[in-house]
## 1
Amino acid sequence: MKLSIVSTLRGGFFFPDILPGATFRERLVSLKRFGFDAVEIWGKWLKEDLDSVQAALKAESVPCGNICSGFRGNLLAGDREERMICFQDFHDLLELAAKLETTGMVFVPLFDKRPQMPDLSPLWDPYEVQKEVFIDMLGKLTQRAESLGVKLFLEPVNRYETHVVKTLQDAAEYIEVVGSDALRITADFFHMNLEEADMAESIRQYGHLIGHVHMVDSNRFLPGQGHTDFGPSMKALKEVGYSGNLSLECFAKGDSETVLPQTVAFMKNLIA
């Protein structure tokens, strides 16, 4: 397993940049200095900044582990135009993932506690419409991912932020229906802590489908700054043979120059 951390290109993400540095390249320098292995790039502005991003990655010899979201709208918007804008952004980001030689792209299908789709009863209610649209979208997007040699990482999110995919089981069910190796799960410890009855057991059950991991503590801060017991879950990841990135997508308490080296040591101890 390798250690990764999210960085933006121009700021503006839900999570602030916790790597020191005024520019993307400066944050890469900090990343290496603290002992991280790769960077996870928030996808917004990546298309516009691709040349400078590639130059910075090459200059600092830092691999891009994957792209984190960065698309407009959502795949399950009630408005068709918004859906299609999002769909095109997915295509663009998958192409960028291939150009950067990353594993792929992390995404959440919808941040909303109820469907935005129309009620087509008695044929389909809004939940059924949403499910059919999502399956169709996933089928088309995974075909594109397959052709580019990258993957889509579906991230389950807790019940307070979505109603679509909340658990590893939810994600696994869509993967089974779509039937593509290009669709895998992002296991986020913050969301799992809220939704999984037994995180370690869920990892054992669905570990063969986990392609990416977000390391976040119970309070959405750095691992070790909350009350999550990472030990059993990390043991489960080892048991299922997970060898991908453990990526920090979170807030931080304290000065980054102090807490990030501490976090790297904490994570390395977990995977030792």
Note: Residues 6 and 40 are 4 Å apart (CA to CA).
## 2
Amino acid sequence: MIDHVNATTTPPDCPGPAANPRGPGTFKVPKGAVDTHAHVIGVPPDYPLVPNRSYTAPAAPAEKYLAMLDGTGMTYGVLIQVSVHGTDNRLMLETLRANPKRLRGVAVVDLGKSDEYYSELKEAGVTGLRINVLYGGGVSIDLLEKYGDLCAEMGWHLQFLLDTRNLPDLAPRIRKLRVPIVVDHMGHFPAAEGVASPGFQELLRLVSEGAWVKLSGAYRLSAPFYRETVPLARALAVAAPDRCVWGSDWPHVANWHHMPNVGELLDLFGEWIPDENLRRRILADNAQLLYGFPLV
């Protein structure tokens, strides 16, 4: 189930994450596990929200995110610049600098900034940039190649929030980039369309050729309790077992339905990936490599 809110209307409030996050009940989280997708969200006026946002989220401060990592047994975390803050990465960068051993980040930036600015991002722990095609507050897909050049210069990857139904048109451009590619949320499309849908088949080709993909965002793809996501995750893990990573998508923004506990999502991951060795690769080994964490 996917709800795209018209950014020209008043951005609706969305609820905060479930209280008391827990680990999975069906398997043990391995040492060195990485939550590769989460956001910190500030409060205006200190951290303004962009006017063209698709939703208004409650505050999600660093201490709550770190408590979630602790409560679920995750060793490391990766913060993704949230769309409601646009290209104002300050809160994310402050959080990275305060937790250099535990956190990395993916920024959303304007082109044409100084070399010093981009270097400061890298020194803070930024390892990639994000192009958000779906929600307000992102940067234009028209500048894809220029962002690819910037990532190549900085040694970063380029991450995409897109709908796989648009991927057949975008894939030729993506394939020409000279940097690692990461696709969010299993392609962020209605899971009911299934593995055989043209866009998802294009995603499978991309990841088999070298792209990375996040097994995350189940609530964005399917109605609770996300049964339709199982074949998608398993197909991606078969196509690229060394380039799949997992993310909580905390605090689960733009969600007006069932608010999952992260432990519930980890239990779902256990169903996606029943093999213990492959679960460890996806939760720990692959993500440590992609984001530059010390190998555990």
Note: The two ends are 36 Å apart (CA to CA).
## 3
Amino acid sequence: MACIEKIYSVSALVGDGRCNANCGFCAGKYLRPQAKPNPNYEKNLEAAIKLSARYGGWSLSLTSSGEPTCDPASLTRALDIYKKCADQGAYFPNVNLFTNGILLGDEEFCKQYLPGWKERGLTNVALSIHHPDEKMQAEAYGLQSYPQFEKIVANVREQELGVRATLLLRKDGIDDSSSYGSAIEDLVEKGIDNITSWPIGNPDGTRNEFTPSRLGLFGIRRWLHKNAKLCHGHEWGGGVYDYKGNILRITDYVTKHDPKKDFVRQLVVFQDGTVAYSWIKEGALCMK
């Protein structure tokens, strides 16, 4: 077994599991029974942040088994813990809120919460996007309508926060080189210039009925190779590309922990207080 030399990031689930969307392929539902107050959660989140920072970590991601903005108080508490850590030296240059973006179409919601979250250390809002067309986005989320992307981007940037996108690769959605290239151009035109993509799959990393074909995923990587310039690769696969001055990333949805490697992609803080070296807990426990 190798000694750990690097812990790149922390992903923390926050909130009570509520969600304002109705996806047929939700990856968080299996975690919702854990979304209850737990006495170990806050101290273990603090420990995970400090441990990752000690081993060169550079990113904190706040997500949920539901939609984190549906429980803004829990999100605020998590950022309070991060601010305490940052004030003590455990600082991350990237603190990202992963969200479906529905509530961020509301200007008043953004004015009420985003300034306080920014003050506590939030740097970016990462929108989960299934399609750059709002009608298709609404359909993917099981909604009648979805806010205009331009409105969400304007609301977030008005509060001096960065906007990123997680362009989700899904069968019959964005699933090949043609749909991927078109989506990238559309999102850049809508003002989003930092886009990460990964294929939808099962929480254990296996394929399911919503995962694009292997040929389609190969085509997307080929598109990046032909049209963008590789900046650097990730040790766990994928990499970061420069596309006309825009940042594109491609990676896997989950990375299984390999005890033979000298790095950890992320520490995951679950809502039951467990901290694991991976979204797959078995064989990857760090603290409970």
Note: The first strand starts at residue 6 and ends at 7.
